[in-house]
Structure prediction request, 922 residues.
Amino acid sequence: MNPIRDLVSIVGDAGLLTDEGAMAPYSRDWRGMFHGRPLAVASPRSTDEVAAIVRLCQQHGIAIVPAGGRTGLAGGATPDDSGNQLVLALDRMNAIRDVDALGETITLGAGCILATAQAAAAELGLMLPISLASEGSVQIGGAIATNAGGTNVLRYGMARARVLGLEVVLADGTVLNGLRALRKDNAGLDWKHWFVGSEGALGIITAAVLQLVPATPHASTALLGFASCDDALDGLRHLRARLGDSITGFELMARAAVDRAAALLGTASPLPDQPWLVLAEARSALAAIEQEMPDACMALIEREIIADALLASSGAQAQALWRLRESLAEAEAHAGRSLKHDISVPIARLAAFVAEAEAMIGAGWPAVALNIFGHAGDGNLHYNVIYQDDADIIGLSAAVHDLVTGYDGSISAEHGIGQYRVEELSRLTDPAELALMAQIKRLFDPSGILNPGRVIPLASA
Amino acid sequence: MNPIRDLVSIVGDAGLLTDEGAMAPYSRDWRGMFHGRPLAVASPRSTDEVAAIVRLCQQHGIAIVPAGGRTGLAGGATPDDSGNQLVLALDRMNAIRDVDALGETITLGAGCILATAQAAAAELGLMLPISLASEGSVQIGGAIATNAGGTNVLRYGMARARVLGLEVVLADGTVLNGLRALRKDNAGLDWKHWFVGSEGALGIITAAVLQLVPATPHASTALLGFASCDDALDGLRHLRARLGDSITGFELMARAAVDRAAALLGTASPLPDQPWLVLAEARSALAAIEQEMPDACMALIEREIIADALLASSGAQAQALWRLRESLAEAEAHAGRSLKHDISVPIARLAAFVAEAEAMIGAGWPAVALNIFGHAGDGNLHYNVIYQDDADIIGLSAAVHDLVTGYDGSISAEHGIGQYRVEELSRLTDPAELALMAQIKRLFDPSGILNPGRVIPLASA
Prediction:
C-alpha cells in the first residue's frame, strides 16, 4: 500500500511533486508566516482525478490541503509540518470552459487565474468585478472558497455574489455537478452557498459558473482629503446620495500609511495637511459620471466636508492614485514587521472604533506604529500594526479583536480564517454558532480529511 | 398534557387561534390551491416565544408550519389536513428595530411587511429593492425564507443578496443571533446562507438585517415591440451594452398575455402588430439616464432590432405601462383555470426554449392556451397555461419540466418548491444533490417537525 504510487497512477508523473525543492512553493505561504512539509503535491487535470485523489486519501486517512494561487493571508493553503498532508493543487484545471455574452456568464475550471478570466470577460465587453491586488495569481477556486473581497465590493459584493453554479467534489469522492448558468434558481436548498467561503473544509471546488456584469467604460477618480474619519464617512454618505452606487470604490488611508507608500514610490505625499485620505472612484456606463463626480466633490469641498482634493483629469493620473493605494501593503512590509488585522464594523461606528482603538493601543502598546487603510465603504479596515520586537505586541491582537467584537464587528472581513485566526474565531464566536459550524463540518467530512484545523476549530470539529 | 394550554401560556390568549373560522385564512393559500386544517395558529411576540413554541412542539411531536404574509405560490405555508400541524404566524413580530442611513441597513422582525420596510428605507433616501406585486402583504421573513425574486432581480439580485444578518430559531429551540450589520464578514462558515431559501424546513427566521441601496430618482420606461423572442434578447444585450446595469427591468410579455390584460383593464392593446412586448425600465442616480434610455431605444429602432416602441414621457405613462404588466396574472385568472410554471433557462437559450415548448404543447395539448410573461432579463418565464378541463392538461407540466431540465434550466426560478413542486423536484434533481439536501434536513431537524414535506421530499428526508 503505497499512496504515492497510487497518486502517480491518478495524476501521472507530471502531476505529482515529491521532491522537497519542487514542493517548496507549496510548503509555505507567500508572506513566509506559515511553513509546512507536504506529503506530496498532486495536480489533477480533471474533476474525476480530484475525486479519485479524495477517495484514495479517504482510504489512507491522508489529509488534503487544497491550494489555488496561494495568495491568501491566513495560511489556509499551507500544510502542517507532519509530512502527512497532501497538497491538492488546482493549477492544471485552468480551462475557460464557456463564455456567454448574452447570458453574461463565464464557466471556469477552479485553477483559472482571475486575471485570465477578467480578460476573457473584457473581450465580450463585460467585466468580472472581483478586483484584488493579487489578481495575476489568484485562482477562481480559491477566490470562491475564501469568498474573496477586494476593491469592488462596495458596488458588486464579495466573490459569493458572482457565483451562479459550482462543481464540488465531496469528501467521499461524490461529484456535485451544479454548473448551472441560471440567474434565478429556487429549486430546493441552494447548496452552492454552503461551499462559498468554506475554505476547502467541506468539499473541493473544481469548477464554477460566474455572473459577469456590463462594463463601466466611464470613470472618475479622486483623492479626497478629510479632517477626520467622521468627515470621510460623511463624504461617503453624501457621494452615494448624489451618485448612487456609481461609487465603486471608497478606499480610506491614514496619513502615515500614505506617507510610507509615497516614500516607497519616491513621490511627494499628496494632500500633506490632511490626516485622512480617501481614494474614491465612480464608474458608470453613462458618460455623465465624468462630470457629475467632480461636481459632487466640488460641492462637498464648498460645504467643507471634503477638506481638499485631487481630481484625476486623465487615466494616467487615476492610475497613479491607484498605484499609491496598491503600494500601501508593500510599504508596510518595508517599515518593519507587521501584525495585520482584517476587521469590519458597522460603517456608522467606524470612526468611533478608530478613535477608541488608537487610544487603546497608544496607552497599552506605545512602541508600535499604526498603518491603517481599507475599504471604508464596506466598513472594512486593514488595521495593521508595525512593530520591531515581539515583546512590543503581546496581547495586542486579542485586544483589537475584543474591541471589534464589542463593536458588533468581524475579526475577518475578507481574508478568511485559515489557520491564522482559527483560535480567535473559537474564542470570540458564540458557542451556538460554533457548534453549528462543527456539526456541518462533521456531516460533510466525518473523517476530517478536508483541510483539517482550518476555518473550523479542530476541538469543535 | 395539553399542548393548546401550554401554547396559550406562551403567546397569551390573543396570540392563539383555535376557532375554525378564525383559522380559515391560515388554512388555505390565497389562490385556493392548497387546503389544510391547522391544530392551531400561534402568533408569538418575541424570539423567546418562538423558541418556547419550538421546544413545546418538539416535546409533543407537533409539526410547525411557519407562515408570513401567505402570498406564496407553492403552498409552503399551508398546513396539511391532519389537524396536527401548528401554524406559527410571524404577524406580531413586525417591528422595525433599527435603520441606519450611513450603513444603509435596516433591521426588522420577520413579520414586518415588505412595503412598510420599503417606506422606512425611502424616508432615508434609500431603497429596499425587493419588488413584488404582493409587497403590501409579503412579510420579510417569508421573503427571505423563499429567497423572493420579483421585478428588480436583474439589477439587485434575489432576496438573498439583501441579507446581511439573520436571527434564526433552530429545531431544538436554540437561538442563533446573527443580526450583524456588516457588509463583509468572512469569520467562519457563513451560516445565514443555509437558511435563505430553505422555506422554514431548517429553522425559523425571526429577524433580519437587510442591506439597502441608494435611491435611483431618475427613470425612463418604455414598452418595446419585437418581431421575435430572439430579437427581444438581442435588444436586451444592446441596451445593457450601452446603458449597463441601469437597465433595472426587462419584462417580456407574449402578445396574447398583453391582449388579455388590456381587455381586463378596458384599454386598447398596445403595439398590436408585435408578437412580443417588453416593458423595459432604466433607473439611475444620474439624470442623464432620462435622455440616454430613449436615445438607446431609438438607435435600436433604426437598426430594426426593436420593431416599434412606446416611450413613456411622464410618470403617469410609466405607471400605466407597469399597471399593464401587473395585470397579467389577474387577466390570466379571468381567462380560465391556469397551470403555472415558474421556470428559468440560460438566457441565451430562452428563445429556443420558447419555440420548442410552443411546438410541443401545440402538438400534444391542443385545447390549451399559453399565457407567457416573465423576467426575461433573468432568464425567468412564468410559462403559464390556460385550460378549462383537467383532461386537457394531463402530463403537460411534467413535459414542460422535462424540457426545462433538458435546457439546463430550473423548475422553480423564484416561487420555491413548497408542497406544490416537491415531487417534481424529487423526480428531476440529481440523486447526489437530493441526498445532500436530505442529510442537511436530518441534521437541522432530526425529528422532522419543521415544515415537513416542503422543499425536501419526505422520502429522502
User: Anything to note?
Assistant: Residues 36 and 81 of chain B are 4 Å apart (CA to CA). The first strand of chain B starts at residue 16 and ends at 17.
